[in-house]
Design goal:
184 residues; Rossmann fold; 2 domains; five-stranded parallel β-sheet; two-stranded antiparallel ribbon; 9 helices; elongated
Length: 184
């Protein structure tokens, strides 16, 4: 690659504790004109955010050592104009609002499509407040499954408590939890 092409690449920080996912996303974003750097923890993400300003970032919400929102805050402390997208496998309205309040552009479900991530990062604010609808939105079955998984995790993986909160029979919940996630 020539030096002029390297100069045109946009600096991108990827913070995700799933190393395989982070590597795949890094390669995909490199092909889309970004120069990715990977951090696998909140501590590494904050260190990289403070060591050099980031133009763009993709941050997982839940990391082994804490919340990705702490990384988003650190990125905006060192670079107010940074464009940050938060990814998560367990989305809910409260965390989406929290992500936007600390400076995230958008909140996307995992596994995120690299084209959608790039489009969200590069979307100009003149395009309006709402991002374009996803090309392949989650099915109703997938949304239901994600909701059940989120409540299950919030109940510390306690099946009885999760069933009580979801107002469903415990055995029905066990059957749902035993199945794989429906396709997006």
């Amino acid at each position: 690659m020539s030096e002029s092409q390297d100069a045109e690449k946009k600096k991108l920080l990827i913070v995700d504790d799933d190393e395989r996912f982070a590597e795949r996303l890094s390669r995909a974003m490199d092909r889309r004109g970004f120069e990715p750097v990977i951090a696998n923890s909140v501590a590494d993400g904050i260190r990289l955010a403070h060591s050099e300003s980031q133009e763009y970032a993709v941050v997982d919400l839940r990391l082994q050592d804490g919340s990705g929102l702490d990384v988003v805050k650190a990125i905006h402390e060192s670079s107010e104009d940074a464009r940050v997208v938060v990814l998560t496998g367990y989305g809910n309205i409260a965390t989406a609002v929290a992500a936007v309040k600390v400076g995230a552009l958008d909140y996307l479900p995992k596994p995120a499509d690299p084209d959608q991530v790039a489009a969200t990062l590069l979307q100009s604010s003149a395009d309006g407040d709402m991002p374009p609808p996803p090309e392949l939105p989650m099915t109703a079955d997938r949304v239901r499954w994600e909701h059940i998984q989120r409540v299950y995790e919030q109940c510390d993986r306690n099946v009885s408590e999760t069933a009580r909160r979801l107002r469903m029979h415990r055995r029905t919940l066990q059957r749902i939890l035993a199945k794989y996630a429906p396709h997006a």
